[in-house]
Amino acid sequence: MKLSYFQDPPKEFIDIMWEIKDRSTVLIGSCLPLRYGAQVIPSAPDTAKWWPPKPGWYKVNTDGAIFEDLRGCGVGVVIRNDRGEIMGAMSKKLDLPLRVLEVETKAVEEGLWFAANFGLKDIIIECDAQQVVKCLGRQIVPPSSICLIMDGIWGGLKSFNDWEIIHTQRNGNQAAHILARQAKFLDDCNIWVEDTPPSIVDQI
Predict the structure, then answer these.
(1) Domains in the chain: how many in total?
(2) Count of C-beta atoms within a 10 Å radius of residue 130
(3) Sheet architecture: strand order including 162-167
(4) Is residue 39 part of a domain?
(5) pTM of the predicted model, to two decimals?
(6) Which CATH number is 102's domain given?
(7) For the chain (length 204 residues), average pLDDT per consecutive 10?
């Protein structure tokens, strides 16, 4: 379709077009901030199972679940050290009608907040949402629906010295997946510190 050509368009039209341009620049710019020396890894070495992080690092597994009947969602977070020992775990219910991509992104944000509260400095974020991994790696522009959450993630990442993000398959993320589904039966949030939630004992 050929657009109309305006010769000497009115000032009001020019002002509107500049406003649209400025807002677009702000939106895209906020979704593509500078990265802080992080490494983005497309997939884990063996995505069929969980692998421990490198020595001295911690792995933060996150997952999200949607509860359509409750018009809400849940997130699950599991943090383990390089020996596979649980440092912390969380199952949290959110009374928000988020869609799949939004809740997966929100789970990463919640996982970062959780890890920061443990004072961890070098982390690997692992989730089974490939689009979230690509957004954090600046391989694709994040959809507008998750830009605000992404801003929260970028802000949270400043708490760490170094970080990586890895995409894994569901089998490598089972513990976080179970805790995300379990959140359906909570009023708010359950947190475990250096203890294993009974529902994921077989996954550890």
Answers:
(1) 1
(2) 15
(3) 39-41, 162-167, 122-127, 58-67, 72-80, 86-94, 189-193
(4) yes
(5) 0.79
(6) 3.30.420.10
(7) 45 49 39 46 61 96 95 97 97 94 96 96 95 89 93 92 92 94 95 95 87
